[in-house]
């Protein structure tokens, strides 16, 4: 036991030199700053709270995302799903099985969806104007009550005031609108239409059922398009036109019972077509639609001859020919007439 008295335990805290102590204090200060910065960043990353006005009626089963603003006198149904950062202005309504993507803005009086079987899906960054009606029952008498019907809208569309966009007429079909379209005031898109991307429809453009519109088309005001017509890419429909047949790609039509009026040269220029591409398109158009007076070739002969010419069969001329050919397929309406055909 005597030996134990000679043993000493090491000190619990060995004194630090002054320089080492200073370095330790600095490390503590840096760590403290990082901790505070992380806490601030975490607070900033916290999702903003949604605001629901006390005068709004939101069903408890509705799914409302983060940072959503719902104004007074709005209604949101039980099956509705509102994406993050959406804004529902006063008196707007989301009904039925309707999904609204992130960062959409719905202005006063607009109605999205309906309490009928089926679904309305609206993508991100869309603007729905005042008193627009989107995703309601179609006006087709063939629609049977109780059938499912569908509407799907992409991203970055602007749908202005008093527009009406209807769901499909059958459960096997769907009304579809793509991305980046500008649909101006009082336009109508009926059941089962299929609209592409980057189109501009001026006020009071009316599409009947089952109309197909490709990409980058432009309509002037008060245009009417017959059901089952097909509007090709980069085409232009003049103001007041009544379109009863297909409009091939790159072309311009105008008039009551619209007729071909040449290529949409301004539209081609704005969409980046080269001078060489435009020249080839003009040559092809003249060959098919503007034959010489002494020419005895039929329209079909001229189109066939164009297809055989290698120098003219390259893109985009081949797309134009393809568009014309498809318009004469089964179930299609043919293309708009051209006056020189009857010479």
From TrEMBL:
The entry's keywords: Acyltransferase, Lipid A biosynthesis, Lipid biosynthesis, Lipid metabolism, Transferase
GO biological process, one term: lipid A biosynthetic process
Signal peptide stretch: none
Name of protein: UDP N-acetylglucosamine O-acyltransferase C-terminal domain-containing protein
PANTHER family per UniProt: ACYL-[ACYL-CARRIER-PROTEIN]--UDP-N-ACETYLGLUCOSAMINE O-ACYLTRANSFERASE (PTHR43480), ACYL-[ACYL-CARRIER-PROTEIN]--UDP-N-ACETYLGLUCOSAMINE O-ACYLTRANSFERASE, MITOCHONDRIAL-RELATED (PTHR43480:SF1)
Source species taxonomy: Eukaryota, Viridiplantae, Streptophyta, Embryophyta, Tracheophyta
InterPro entries: Acetyltransf_C, Acetyltransf_C_sf, Hexapep, Lipid_A_LpxA, Trimer_LpxA-like_sf
UDP N-acetylglucosamine O-acyltransferase C-terminal domain: residues covered: 246-336
Highest taxon, organism lineage: Eukaryota
One Pfam entry name: Hexapep
GO cellular component, one term: membrane
Gene3D superfamilies referenced in this protein's UniProt entry, alphabetically: Hexapeptide repeat proteins, Udp N-acetylglucosamine O-acyltransferase, C-terminal domain
GO molecular function terms listed in the Swiss-Prot or TrEMBL record: acyl-[acyl-carrier-protein]-UDP-N-acetylglucosamine O-acyltransferase activity
This protein's record includes keyword Lipid biosynthesis: yes
């Amino acid at each position: 036991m005597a030996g134990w008295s000679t043993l000493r335990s090491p000190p619990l805290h060995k004194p630090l030199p002054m320089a080492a102590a200073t370095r330790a204090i600095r490390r503590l200060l840096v760590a403290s700053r990082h901790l505070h910065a992380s806490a601030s960043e975490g607070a900033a990353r916290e999702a903003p709270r949604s605001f629901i006005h006390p005068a709004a009626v939101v069903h408890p089963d509705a799914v409302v995302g983060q940072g959503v603003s719902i104004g007074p006198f709005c209604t949101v149904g039980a099956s509705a799903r509102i994406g993050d950062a959406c804004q529902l202005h006063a008196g707007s309504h989301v009904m039925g099985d309707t999904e609204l993507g992130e960062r959409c803005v719905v202005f006063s009086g607009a109605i999205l969806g309906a309490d009928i079987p089926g679904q309305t899906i609206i993508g991100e960054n869309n603007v729905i104007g005042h008193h627009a009606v989107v995703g309601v029952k179609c006006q087709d008498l063939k629609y049977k009550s109780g059938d499912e019907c569908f509407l799907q809208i992409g991203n970055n569309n602007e749908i202005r005031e008093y527009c009406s966009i209807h769901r499909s007429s059958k459960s096997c079909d769907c009304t579809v609108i793509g991305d980046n379209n500008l649909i101006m005031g009082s336009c109508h898109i009926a059941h089962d239409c299929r609209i592409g991307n980057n189109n501009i429809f001026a006020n009071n453009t009316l599409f009947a059922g089952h109309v197909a519109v490709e990409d980058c088309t432009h309509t002037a005001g008060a245009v009417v398009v017959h059901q089952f017509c097909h509007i090709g890419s980069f085409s232009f429909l003049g103001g007041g036109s009544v379109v009863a047949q297909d409009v091939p790609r790159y072309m311009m039509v105008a008039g009551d019972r619209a007729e071909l009026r040449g290529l949409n040269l301004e539209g081609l220029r704005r969409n980046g077509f080269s001078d060489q591409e435009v020249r080839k398109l003009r040559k092809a158009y003249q060959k098919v639609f503007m034959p010489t007076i002494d020419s005895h070739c039929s329209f079909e002969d001229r189109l066939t001859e164009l297809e055989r010419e290698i120098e003219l069969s390259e893109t985009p001329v081949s797309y134009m020919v393809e568009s014309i050919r498809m318009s004469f397929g089964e179930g299609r309406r043919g293309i708009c007439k051209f006056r020189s055909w009857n010479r």
